Amino acid sequence: MTSQPRAHGPGTQSGDPVRDSALALVPEILEAYIPLSRAVWLEGPLGPALLEMVRLRNAQRVNCVFCRNARYDIARDDGLTEEKIGWMASEEGREQLSEQERLAVAFADAYLEGPDNLSSDLQAELAAAFSPAEIAHLSLALLLFNTFSRCAVTIGGMPDSLPVMEVSLPPA
Asked: Which SUPFAM superfamilies does the record cross-reference, listed alphabetically (predicted)?
C-alpha cells in the first residue's frame, strides 16, 4: 500500500527525481543541496562504490523505498555489484566484503544507532583502515544520506516497493 504523500511535487517533470519531488517546492533550498550532494560524491577522498554501500545501508535502516532501490551509475561504474550489495544484509555476507567495506558498513550502523555506539574497538579499526579525512568524508556522506532519506520517508507518497533502478547525480 502506497503511503499518502504529505506534500506533492511542483508538477513539472524534468526527468530528475530529486528536482521533480516535493523538495522542489522550496527551490532555493533544493538548489543549495544539489552542489553539496555532488561534492560528497565527486570531491571527497572516498570512491563512489564505497559511498553507495554506506548510502544503501542507511536506506535499509531508514526504510526509504526509493533510496533502497536506487543505484547510482557512478557507483556501478566504480565496481559496485548487486552481489556485493546483497552481502551487506547479513553478518555472513559482510565477511565477503573488503576490510574497508565491512568497516564502512559497521560505521554506518553505529552512526545511525547513535554517536555513543561507536565502540573503542571500532574506532581503532577505522583509524587503522581510513585516514582522518576519509572518516570525516564517511561522516558527512552519512549526514547527507540520512537527512535526505528521512525527509523522503517523512514526506511520504512512496509505493511499497520499486524495482532496482539506476540513477545519476542531479546535474549541477
From this structure: AhpD-like (SSF69118)
